[in-house]
Specification:
245 residues; 7 helices; mainly alpha
Length: 245
């Protein structure tokens, strides 16, 4: 089996070729898993004996919350690569991940509030899980704001990368908050050490819609990275032409 030489995709041209091949595939996968997930979760899955139909918000809330944490870790990972090896496409990928991560974080907070009102009687409480997830949204927005506020791109890249890396400490706080503190938020229904505490239709819907979020994120981030890379090339060319005048 031929080994894929991942380093060659540090080149924007090679990355563009790869993205053009992958994006259509992941768009199709997004549509297929979304349709299957919504059919299973909102039609086939039974009504919960305690929460009624309101629990179905879980099929959007849980995947969004998982993706909000994972994409931040990935953004921080690319930020490390950018700082250590000065690979431009790593910086492009980190920057391209931030809007999608912020969107999933907002979606997790919004659906959590909609789920919380009928289940616990309130849209919001300042407990550890909800507060740390809100901080995650601020970290995403802060990364984008810091990047945009500094005119020099290299300085902006370094400053935003440092913020992304420092903010990683918030991710385990989000994940372990329900174990470390007494919070309103319920514990995990799916863990690696035990079987799921839900019916197979609920579990199947959750997995399908989690895959939907994964495939959507891959397609959107790759396409955004292409656009960011192209825009930066145009700006560099324009700056070069202006300097010669």
């Amino acid at each position: 089996m031929q080994r894929i030489r991942w380093k060659k995709y540090a080149s924007s041209a090679k990355f563009d070729q790869l993205a053009n091949r992958l994006v259509p595939v992941f768009v199709v996968l997004t549509l297929v898993t979304a349709i299957a997930g919504f059919v299973v979760g909102f039609i086939l899955a039974p009504v919960d004996y305690q929460q009624g139909n309101s629990y179905r918000i879980m099929f959007v809330h849980v995947p969004a919350a998982w993706m909000s944490m994972f994409l931040y870790l990935l953004m921080a990972f690319y930020s490390v690569i950018n700082l250590v090896w000065r690979i431009k496409m790593a910086d492009v990928m980190a920057y391209s991940l931030a809007p999608t991560g912020a969107m999933f974080t907002f979606l997790a907070l919004w659906t959590g509030a909609l789920w919380g009102k009928p289940t616990w009687g309130t849209y919001w409480v300042w407990d550890a899980r909800l507060t740390s997830e809100l901080i995650l949204l601020f970290l995403y927005l802060g990364y984008l704001a810091l990047y945009s506020s500094i005119p020099d791109r290299q300085r902006a890249s370094r400053a935003a990368s440092f913020l992304a890396i420092v903010g990683v400490i918030n991710v385990p706080i989000i994940y372990f908050s329900v174990r470390w503190w007494n919070t309103l938020h319920q514990g995990a229904s799916i863990t690696l050490s035990s079987s799921p505490t839900m019916t197979w239709t609920m579990f199947t819907a959750l997995i399908l819609l989690t895959l939907t979020c994964w495939f959507y994120a891959i397609a959107v981030v790759l396409r955004r990275a292409q656009a960011v890379s192209l825009e930066r090339k145009r700006m560099s060319l324009w700056a070069s032409l202006m300097s010669k005048k």
